[in-house]
Amino acid sequence: MSLRDQFKKANLISSKDAKRLAHEARVERKEKGREQLEQEEQQRQQALQAASGAERARIQREQRDLDAARAERDEAAAVAAILADEAHRAGPGTVRFYFATADGSLPWLEVSPREAQELRAGQLCVVLAGPEGVHDYRLLPLELAKRVARLRPDVIVHAPRGVVAGR
After folding, report:
1. Are the CB atoms for 97 and 124 separated by under 8 Å?
2. pLDDT tens, per residue, the chain with 167 residues
3. How many angstroms separate the most distant Cα atoms in the chain?
4. Strand, helix or coil for residue 94
5. Coarse DSSP helix, strand, coil percentages of the chain, rounded to the nearest 5 percent
6. What is the distance between the alpha carbons of residues 25 and 47, in angstroms, rounded to a whole number?
7. What are phi and psi of 140, to 5 degrees?
8. What is the C-alpha separation between 143 and 87, in angstroms, rounded?
9. Reduced to 3 states, what is the DSSP secondary structure of residue 48?
10. What is this structure's pTM?
11. How many angstroms separate the first and last alpha carbons of the chain?
């Protein structure tokens, strides 16, 4: 059923108007000819495909942005969990491990001989547990410190070269 028939059925146009529109359509088809009508139809189809392709690309771009934002939120939550759960206080130890901070101070931690060996070997890193300026430090395994450094390089106080970009 054509659009003209649907308008007529809905009483949006009269029978006289429907006949006039049908006549105009026949005259237009006769004047333009089959080739031009087919060409116009192809142009309409191409325009429709281009519009739907652009819409599809826009939707994919928006979905990628949403996925990236979701992944960033998830990674931030994971890093917060790592800092809260995995970073541990230095055990009661007999060895003082000194390290330099970004502000130039030289704090130290009392660590066990094993922790001192792991710190020197680069298997453990020192992270800031409290707010900046407060000397509250924890130990974190190297692989977790690398993950934390990607999102929160400011909390990494002592790590082997290359864990934090620029250090």
Report:
1. no
2. 777 788 778 887 888 888 888 888 888 878 788 788 788 889 999 999 999 999 999 999 999 999 999 999 999 999 999 888 888 887 777 888 888 887 888 888 899 999 989 989 989 999 988 777 778 899 999 999 999 999 999 899 888 877 776 55
3. 104
4. coil
5. 60, 15, 25
6. 22
7. -140, 135
8. 12
9. helix
10. 0.61
11. 73
